[in-house]
Amino acid sequence: MRQIWIIAKRELQSFFDSLIAYIMMIAFLGFSGFFTWLYGGDVFFVGQASLQTFFEVAYWTLFFFIPALTMRLFAEENRSGTIELLLTRPVSDWQVVTGKFLSTVILIAIALLLTVPYYITVANIGNIDHGAVITGYLGLILMSAAYISIGIYTSSITNNQIVAFLLTIFIGIFFHLICGILAHSMGGTMGTFFNYLSLQNHFNSIARGVIDSRDIIYFASIITLGLVATEATLARRNASK
After folding, report:
1. What pTM value is reported for the model?
2. Among positive and negative, which fits the CA dihedral 45, 118, 70, 59?
3. So where are the chain's domains?
């Protein structure tokens, strides 16, 4: 665990040293704030104290921001050759993968923490459902973690950051949009299958305040699959040398 935390701190520091963290947070707060409070959200006029508009906006904002954060995690090190130096240190492939994953999750958590004033403001407007707010933030964290694991995997299989970014977007579109469309257009077993694969379906369930074990298992499965696939990619690279 100590090695994982050391790698996570190293990656988190690199985010802030390169200004990526500041740019992402400012952009995230700008986009989410604008579309929640000023354009289309009408938070002050919907007649109820709710952060559902923010959760919907943040869901799609993070959809584009997370690939921009994960695309460099391995792709840049593959291109520069520093990945070889990192992997020769007394750390396992799993520790490297988990450390990089943890650093990005922490960065997203910090960005979401900065939106707590939204919650305080809406709570002062009326009687807000505190449970729904907590599960809404939980849904964003789980969605982000699942998407980060996908981004880390795509970054590990290429040395081009743009390719990693686009691959993450394409895979994300499949889980965010296509599965939902297929679920609605198909019936029977296939419709149920694609409905379960739909990330938005599971996110919406949690954001509404419902904690279902199926949703937790879904996100945990994607996270585990992404991290294990990334570790396998690093192991193959090591074995080929």
Report:
1. 0.89
2. negative
3. 2-239
